[in-house]
Amino acid sequence: MEKLKLMSLYADFRKDLSFIEKELEQSIDSSSPVIRQASLLLLRAGGKRIRPIFVILSSQFGEYSMENVAKVAVSLELIHMASLVHDDVIDDSDFRRGFETVKARWNNRIAMYAGDYIFSRALVSIGEIEMPAVHQLLAETMLEICKGEIIQIEYQQQTNQSFRDYLRRIKRKTALLLSSSCELGALVSNATPETVGKLKRFGYFAGMAFQIVDDILDITSTDEQLGKPAGSDLLNGHLTLPTLYIKDDPEFQPFLLRSFDGSLTEEERGLMLTYIRKSGAIEKAQQVSNMYLKKAIAEVESLPDGEAKRALLQIAAFLGKRKF
Amino acid sequence: MEKLKLMSLYADFRKDLSFIEKELEQSIDSSSPVIRQASLLLLRAGGKRIRPIFVILSSQFGEYSMENVAKVAVSLELIHMASLVHDDVIDDSDFRRGFETVKARWNNRIAMYAGDYIFSRALVSIGEIEMPAVHQLLAETMLEICKGEIIQIEYQQQTNQSFRDYLRRIKRKTALLLSSSCELGALVSNATPETVGKLKRFGYFAGMAFQIVDDILDITSTDEQLGKPAGSDLLNGHLTLPTLYIKDDPEFQPFLLRSFDGSLTEEERGLMLTYIRKSGAIEKAQQVSNMYLKKAIAEVESLPDGEAKRALLQIAAFLGKRKF
After folding, report:
1. Coil, strand or helix at A27
2. Which of A209, A220, B165, B247 has the greatest count of CB atoms below 10 A from its CB?
């Protein structure tokens, strides 16, 4: 359904994507049964493969070499997967997109080391590319992402935070890796510095919009659609954009505090979600997301016409409207 | 005391080492108080800085450039530190060398992410070196180490394992990173392939001996010397070389099984340690360690004479006799 719609955006690049999918499967092949099973579980749970598609599309604006592009794409998707495994350790989540998580099936220790392993695999994949700038960019990106993960814990259950804190957090959590996906795809194809810059900013703005929509969906979707309880962000102690708008609202505050201290009942969770949905906060958050999408689109518009540009614009439009 | 003796081996390279120590401190400086404090705690807990010293000494057999050597040395020590933080999550250890661990002071989540962060810092440090072979070697090394960490869990509490299983495990746990420290130090200084090979093997053999001695000390030292209970390896479900020799001994078996299932009393722990110490297993393990040390020394003997060669030989001799 929704997923199929997204795939149709990828139609022109289906062959490239399935090549990368195969490389991904190969790269996590291991003689250790635990590693192999854990990685396959993750791979099958799928996801939208947005990082690989951003790498592929950005590479089209330079001298396209599928071999190098695949190495970068595989590496970035593996880093994303590794961070999901580590996130599962963090959030005590037993399901992700309806699939059992690595952590639930084995335990926190295995999940941590499986994440480390997948992460090392990513380095091996990108290690074959002999461009120092690529390694430096990847290392800097990962450093910022890791910083973000710790900062996210520092802010957990803190009600005293600003919009700026939130934006900085989602930049590190999501936008940076998407931005670097575009930048690396363009870099590795020797695109001009100007083009690299535009694609990098496209990825950043699209990533900010993507995460804001994610945070909205955590409130507006059903448990079934999410594969986890709606409102999980709050239950896990994270204030997101919609809830930041109403965090000082006296009618919302009791919900917020009970979410954070773990005493919210199932009935109260339903009431809380309805309250947020009707508060106007969702619409405000949607506007911020739309603003980022507009910025993303503006970066791409001046690039040369073609299939890649069309696909980037369609993805941007899609990210704003997605319902999953 | 013992530590001072080791430092005296480093005397000729003290300036280089203190330069690296400063770079290490700078590299973990962060605006996040949790990251900064966690990393500083680790840094202060110290350790023997064997990886940096191996990098420095190996670099002396090529065209020595302190700037590059320091980047490699800092990177390898950070990787070692990151793996210690992740090990603490695993072993539920609250103290390491008598210092509170990152995990105990904060929690498992923070420890995992602090490890990830320090690890990314390592990549940033080495990322500045524009030699593809360096990045490939580091990535492959880390992949093997991560594999080893998962395999170590797979073998946990398994009594049915061979000497080969043990040797493969300590190779990944310790010898590989020491081997790569030597190899990278030589590579980054453009030493000849023959010299690179000798140093790489020296690091590997010395690393095997080092870990075997570590595993012996876990049995022969006092709780105070170790900063954790003697026999911790067994209590954590790990069979090491000395205990492999007697694992099927009917008098030892009850100790082994009770260590693994967590029912060993403090009194029994004392009896068990005495039993192992008197069994002859320690001496057999010591012989294997000595065999590796001889191999390590043989690799270095054909290298050109000088301060670096002398220091490598002294370190090898020291590793065999160390009491901490």
Report:
1. helix
2. A209
Mean pLDDT of chain A: 89
Using the CB atoms, write b or e for A153-169: b if 16+ within 10 Å: bebebeeeeeeeebbeb
Amino acid, res. A76: L
Whether the pLDDT of residue B95 is over 60: the answer is no
B 148-167 → A contacts, CB under 8 A: 149-151, 153-154
Instruction: Specify the pLDDT at position B123.
Output: 95
**A86 lies within 8 A of chain B by CB:** yes
The residue type at A5? K
CATH number of A2-321: 1.10.600.10
Distance CA B85, CA B122 (A): 14
CB-CB neighbors (< 8 A) of B145 in chain A: 120
Asked whether A169 and A151 are in contact (CB, 8 A), the reply is yes
Angle CA(A182)–CA(A186)–CA(A188) in degrees, nearest 5?
120
- Tell me the C-alpha to C-alpha distance, in Å, between residue B78 and each of B23, B46, B150, B153: 11, 12, 20, 23
Chain A residues in contact with B32 (beta carbon < 8 A):
147, 150-151, 154
Rounded CA Rg of chain B: 20
Picking from A135, A145, A153, the nearest residue to B127 by CB comes out as: A135
Beta bridge partners of A99: A96
Flag whether residue B140 sits within 8 Å of chain A, measured between CB atoms.
yes
Return d(Cα B152, Cα A162) in angstroms, integer.
44
**Chain A contacts in chain B segment 245-284 (CB below 8 A):** none
Of B163, B17, B131, nearest in space to B63 by CA: B131
Least confidently predicted of A20-24, A208-212, B241-245, B269-273:
A20-24
Identify the weakest region by mean pLDDT among A14-23, A96-105, A263-272.
A96-105
CA distance A117 to chain B (A): 5
Rounded Cα distance, A134 and A124, in Å: 13
- Within B171-280, residue ranges assigned H as helices are 176-188, 193-220, 223-226, 232-235, 241-246, 253-261, 266-278
Q: Which tokens is A63 given?
A: 């001298």
| Closest approach of A167 to chain B, Cα-based (Å) | 17
Which sequence spans correspond to the domains of chain A? 2-321
The secondary structure of A143-203 as a DSSP string is: HHHHHHHHHHHHHTT-----HHHHHHHHIIIIIHHHHHHHHHHHHHTT--HHHHHHHHHHH
Mean of the per-residue pLDDT values of chain B = 89
Interchain CB contact of B220 with A (< 8 Å):
no
